[in-house]
Amino acid sequence: MLVYAHDARAGEKHERSDLLINELWVSRQGHLSIKVLQELYVTLTQVVPSPLDLEAASKILKNLSPGGCMSPIPRMCSAPSTFNSATGFPSGTR
Description:
With 94 residues, the chain is mainly alpha-helical. The chain is built from 4 helices and no strands.
């Protein structure tokens, strides 16, 4: 759903996903795990037919986590721009 929300070419799926994510954002009822953000980053930069550059994908992740990051492992809260594009984990962790 997050990928569709950022892909205007997805037509109706984009519209529905974008609307739902915005509703969750406004109501503060949506939560994203670090794992989901990692998978989104890898998907946006490698899996989709027209991958985003690392800077554009990093910007999306930063917008999805404006309050910072909560993790039992502090190094998992690295800035998205330091993610290893192959694994979705912060560089040097895998």
